[in-house]
Amino acid sequence: MATNPFEDSQGRYVVLANEEGQYSLWPARIQQPAGWELVKDEGSKQECGEYIEANWTDMRPRSVVAAMSG
After folding, report:
1. pLDDT tens readout for residues 16-66
2. Among 43, 50, 46, 52, residue whose Cα is nearest residue 17
3. In whole angstroms, how large is the CA radius of gyration of the chain?
């Protein structure tokens, strides 16, 4: 097991998202922080990374997108 739970290639992860539409790969064994919601259940690091890649297509926070849209 890696010392840093965020770098454990064999660990189990979840995907979280905040109200700005930003995503985070999060170790499943660590409580999710306030302000973040679970958007993908537990899976491998690769599975969760693929989910983020497929779903987080615009890196700009929602508030920036809204401001630019007028």
Report:
1. 999 999 999 999 999 999 999 999 999 999 999 999 999 999 999 999 999
2. 52
3. 13
Beta bridge partners of 17: 23, 37
Taking residues 7-12, report their average pLDDT: 93
* Single-letter code of the amino acid located at 45: K
Nearest of 16, 13, 17, 40 to residue 27 by alpha carbon: 13
Return the CATH number at 25. 3.90.820.10
Range of the structural domain that residue 18 is part of: 5-69
Which runs of consecutive H residues, i.e. helices, occur in 1-70? 45-55, 62-69
Query: Domains in the chain: how many in total?
Result: 1
